[in-house]
Amino acid sequence: MIVIGVDTGGTFTDFVYFDGSERRIFKVLSTPENPAEAVLAGLNVVAEDKRKDIVHGSTVATNAILERKGAKTALITNRGFEDIIEIGRQNRERIYDLKYRKPASVIPSNLRFGIDCRILSDGKILKELDLREIRDVVDKLKRERVESVAVCFLFSFVNPSHELSVKEILTGEDFHSSLSHQILPEFREYERTSTTVLNAYVAPIMKRYITYFMENLGSGDRLRIMQSNGGSISADTAARESIRTILSGPAGGVIGAYEVAKAAGFEKIITFDMGGTSTDVSLVNRDVSLTTESKIGGFPVKVPMIDIHTVGAGGGSIAYVDRGGSLKVGPRSAGASPGPICYGRSGKEITVTDANLFLGRLIAEHFLGGKMKLHRDILNGYFAEMARQLSMDPVSLAQGILSVANSTMEKAIRVISVERGENPEEFALVAFGGAGGLHAPFLANNLSISTVLIPENPGTLSALGMLVADIVKDYSQTVMMRGADSTVREISLILKELEKKGMQDMIGEGIDAGNVVFEYYLDMRYLGQSHEIMVPYGKDYIERFHDYHKRFFGYRKEGHEVEIVNVRLRCKGRTGKFVFEPEEIKRKKIVRDAHIGKRDVFFDDETAIETSIIDRERLAYGNVVEGPAIIVEYTSTTIVPPGWVCEVDACKNLVISQF
After folding, report:
1. Which of 99, 108, 205 is nearest to 148 (CA)?
2. pLDDT, position 147
3. Do 558 and 617 reside in the same domain of the chain?
4. Residue 249, in any domain of the structure
């Protein structure tokens, strides 16, 4: 059997596959109109007739939400709460935007149904559910040709009986249903409803995608889907709980970077994934950071996800002159089709990739190992025209485009570090994605980061992360306890119940009991606060909470009463990871044929500098490359600017630092 990680990006679909002896990579252009086509085409190339164990990072659920192309969905909730997804928390996302408009709900008001029933906070039934009322609603759903239904009753996470009764009727009528006590069994009805609604909205789309995918695989093949929490789940689970997959691609990148950096001896890293459409950054302080405060399309999604910040700056980001005469870059992207101008596919708008090629930083004949042609000659007219609009020369324009893009990405890194009490100077910058190595040294310089690490095959690291990811499932229960010794026994009892469910689900996923690992967390706050911090659970959990609070907010309240809001269990099924084996023989001298040419390249000045072109495949452990140099490989290009030096470590990473 061949194990394959597949990451679908906006421009390329990446494959990393391992047959038990050798790890290989492959890339094809994405097919945005049907992402499965590119994946299946690539699988036919890399696996041929072999049995396949596939872990796939899918953008299907994400795109359905962002493009508003989900299933026709209805909401069933308590009477009086039909408009909760419209009202929200009554906060204004962009407080200084005078023209701001809230995103319209994915469920129109005529498809929100209030039922006259009520369960109290302790689980007691105040008013019983009338099934005749539900059947009347079902008749309306049929007339409206609704495909999927979100069911969210108050306090269903304490007593789910009403939601289960509704599900029984909906299932009998062939509707897809999402129940809030299964998707998010926690308090805060707005976030629970929003998360459940989005799951209902995308699940039928995801199910059709997975069904089509499976129909085109062999009978012995297995498909798992990457989740936003950094683990994978079975295709069946992903079809039911699709909301857990919305950041699967970026999550794969963080897991890949974490594993590579750990093998290379780096515990504190900032991951920097720059692709064709966007850039994703995340901070790892000895372990991957999780959050339950994410949003997509303007709607809260409270399932656990890796804490990733995304900005609209990538290789395909389009440069333009705004109405005020200023140069702007992104978030609009040229994507895979037509792509940057230099692709020669009728693209007419200058992109970040075009600017890198124009300055000589991207080597046309070595792009994708020479398998894809870039056209430097057709850029001159486009750059001359935009430079004329801005009263500058074309070289300064190209440098300006990269500076604007770098500024956007630098700001993103500050959001996840400085704004959260972390000093970026204490971290290494792990750069990957097709464009990461072109920009990372310049970002590191601006942020005073001393070390940049470029993994082997950086353009496919997200797919590698999927290949090495464990199967992970998250469970939670709202408890509302005061943090005292008497609560420890109660927490232990709750965790044991969650462990039983976790073990049962892991066995269902095909994992042996001996390969299951449990991690425990508490959502905690000071009494009187309205938001929580997720803290690892242990004997000193109260002291840990004080430490975490000081780290995030700058102060701690010794002696102040602490409240436990949610108990969380993270259940990991070990899948037998690919092992990163370090080289043993260190070689200082670079082989002669690693130098494959020289090129005049523009860096920060208006004068081009003669720059060495190095073939990364011919570099070995211990090799040192002094800047200026450009290191080319199949999946990416890495710049070593003047004043910087690059050394190949034992894990074949490029470690770049300033003299």
Report:
1. 205
2. 97
3. no
4. no
Q: Which two tokens stand for residue 175?
A: 């509707």
What is the C-alpha separation between 317 and 350, in angstroms, rounded? 8
Domain boundaries, position 79: 66-207
102 and 196, same domain (yes or no): yes
Within this chain, do residues 620 and 534 fall inside the same structural domain, yes or no? no
Angle CA 214–218–224, to nearest 5 = 45
* Top mean-pLDDT range of 33-37, 78-82, 275-279: 78-82
Per the listing, tokens 């008001």 go with 109
Could you tell me if 80 and 157 lie in one domain?
yes
Per the CB < 8 A criterion, the answer to whether 9 and 333 are in contact is: no
- Domain membership of residue 387 (yes or no) is no
Whole-angstrom Cα distance, residue 413 to residue 279?
Answer: 10
pLDDT in tens, 412-456: 999 999 988 899 999 999 999 989 999 999 999 999 999 999 999
Residues 197 and 125 in one domain: yes
| 647: amino acid identity, one letter | E
The pTM of this model reads 0.91
Q: Does 560 map to a domain?
A: yes
Q: For the sheet with 609-615, list strands across it.
A: 595-601, 609-615, 629-632, 637-640
567 plus 607 within the same structural domain? no
Neighbours of 102 (CB within 10 A): 11
User: What distance in Å separates the CA atoms of residue 171 and residue 165, rounded to the nearest whole number?
Assistant: 10
* Range 116-142 average pLDDT: 97
**Contact call for residues 570 and 558 (beta carbons, < 8 A):** no
Q: How many domains does the chain have?
A: 3
Strand ranges for 211-293 from DSSP E: 222-226, 232-234, 268-274, 279-285, 290-291
Asked which of 207, 225, 252 is the last residue of a domain, the reply is 207
Burial class (CB in 10 A: 0-12, 13-18, 19+), 222: middle
Q: How far apart are the C-alpha atoms of 283 and 307, rounded to whole Å?
A: 8
Q: Are residues 481 and 553 in the same domain?
A: yes
Q: Where is average pLDDT lowest: 72-86, 211-225, 435-449?
A: 211-225
Q: Quick check: is 173 in a domain?
A: yes
Give the number of other CB atoms < 10 A from CB of residue 185.
18
Distances (CA, A) of 87 to 27, 84, 186, 530: 44, 5, 19, 19
Q: 546-577 pLDDT, tens per residue?
A: 999 998 888 999 889 999 999 999 999 998 76
pLDDT category at 11 given cuts 50, 70, 90 is confident
Closest CA to 638 of 504, 453, 462, 429: 453
Amino acid at site 33: E
Q: Distance (Å, rounded) from C-alpha 468 to C-alpha 230?
A: 10
Confidence check: pLDDT of 219 > 90? no
**Nearest by Cα to 334 from 323, 325, 343:** 343
Pairing state of beta strands 644-648 and 637-640? unpaired
203 and 70 share a domain?
yes
Point out the least confidently predicted range of 366-375, 399-408, 447-456, 464-473: 366-375
State which of 207, 232, 258 marks the end of a domain. Answer: 207
Question: What CATH code is carried by the domain that includes residue 509?
Answer: 3.30.1490
Contact 351, 318 (CB under 8 A): yes
Domain with 70 in it: what CATH number?
Answer: 3.40.1360
Cis amide linkage into residue 441, ω under 30° from 0: no
